[in-house]
Amino acid sequence: MRKLRSLLLLTLAAVLVVTLAACGKSATKTSSQKQTLNLSTTAPLDTIDISKATGYGQTGNVFESFYRLGKDGKTTPGLAKSGKVSKDGKTWTFTLRNAKWSNGDKITAQDFVYSWRRTLAPKTKSTYAYLFSGIKNADQVNAGKLSPDKIGIKALNSKTVQIQLDKPIAYFKVLMAYPLFGPQNQKVVDKYGKKYGTNSKYMVYSGPFKIQNWNGTGNKWQFVKNNQYWDKKVVKLSKIKYTVVSSPTTGLELYQQGKLDLTPLSNEQVKHYKGNKEFQQYPYSYVGYLKYNFKDANQTKRKAMSNKDIRLAISLAIDRQQLTKKVLGDGSDTPTGFVASGLAKDPKTGVDFAKQQAVPNTVDYNVKLAKQHWQKGLKALGTKNVTLTITASNDDPTSNPITQYMKSELQQDLPGFKLNIRNVPGQVANQEVLKGDFDLSLSGWGADFNDPISFLQIPETGTAYNSGKYSNPAYDKLIKQAQNRDANNADKRWNDLVKAAKLFNADQGMTPLYQQVTSYLQKPSVKGVIHNTAGTQWSYKYAYMK
């Protein structure tokens, strides 16, 4: 239940998310000027239509759902003043608070029903429609097999929304903090027709802020405080000014001139500013990894990658400390396994899932053990040489350093191994990988919500994003248990997921390389920003300028 992204897109998204989401409050002209935040973004907003968005970092502060994300990925009050779930975990009932759209219209239960039906209608072509999977009839509606009015959501009255699930969804509450699941005003959609969401004036907003002076293509726009917002009294920022800045060098110059309050840093800039008191790092639940093609058209290559010893040898020959600290040099962390750290904690002990998933001698740097596995794998294959090609996106500036490092390291430590590099445009790379036209792929995944399943559903047999065609019946069984039999038992479900992650990590079905951390310079006057590792990562509801 998540969306595959190229390394480039995630790098841009990390910047975009940080730089696109705030606004504020003003009492006098002086305080208004003081409570203005100046941020940059790498590209113009593509859409502000939540049904058609390709990400919600930039809109998470202008649109609100039943909940919001607070600190540490915890749900906090949103448009719902209360929510309850049935004992079987399949029926959720939300009671809405007295809230209004930015134009003064009341936000009603029917606004949620309309929004969900609009998003799931096949003609909408929602990129994120898959996140509705598990809600009654959602998959069939999105596939065009049922009409939109068959989805499991209804308005019991103007203030009560009832949602029916096909099965319990353990992370449903967190999911309901996603702007994707928020309401839409049908009157406004009908009024503007095709213009809806193409300009900031052709939209109404339900969150702490609203957008001004955005025309769909411009390089400057503002977010301002939404004075109709139900919790407006806590919002301190009055305005945030956005400017498109494509180069980190230009961004740094503007920051030094006092024209930006926050700016992302390139790898080289990180090395120079790491000791600066204004240096900040924000982790993201994005893991870059090596994907194997278990259905490679070349039988010889397929046999090599299907050999567990070959995969373990490759993983153990990679020095992730050197990769993250020297090759990348941007603050990225070394992963313990396929699931990112800082994403979710054990409901009983509070221990990070990433710590529990760790399997010794899988992602460690151990050349001696790597050589042993390599020789064992070569013997099983009946060969002394293995040649593979790694496909990567040349749009991403980190791809070439990573692939060049891997080529040098692997060919040095694994006798008889030759790694060819194929750097192509990101769109081409993604298309080839999705079609299964690759040997190895430099890929990555960022969680859409704070739950391990956001990563662990990828390797299931037959899933859309399992383009390497990894398949393990024991793994599938554990994920199925977690999502069905044990879905309503937090502890049992967690244990299922830990076992599945350990199995996958021991198997090296995909080989994790690094976890992304994005570095910035941030003015000391910027306070109260809430950052999360997944979903709507940045919240400026409580942000202010000191």
Automatic annotation (TrEMBL):
**Is Repeat tagged as a keyword?**
no
List the Pfam families. SBP_bac_5
Q: What is its main location?
A: other
Gene Ontology cellular component list = ATP-binding cassette (ABC) transporter complex; outer membrane-bounded periplasmic space
Kindly indicate where the leader peptide sits in this chain: 1-21
| Location of the Solute-binding protein family domain | 75-463
Look up the domain of life of the source: Bacteria
What one GO molecular function would you report for this record? peptide transmembrane transporter activity
Q: Which UniProt keywords apply?
A: Peptide transport, Protein transport, Signal, Transport
User: Subcellular localization, per the record?
Assistant: Cell envelope
Query: Which biological process annotations from GO are given for this protein?
Result: peptide transport
Gene3D superfamilies in UniProt: Dipeptide-binding Protein, Domain 1, Dipeptide-binding Protein, Domain 3, Periplasmic binding protein-like II
| Annotated InterPro entries | Peptide/Ni-bd, SBP_5, SBP_5_dom
Which protein family is it in? Belongs to the bacterial solute-binding protein 5 family.
- This chain belongs to the protein called Oligopeptide-binding protein OppA
Q: What is the organism of origin for this protein?
A: Lentilactobacillus parabuchneri
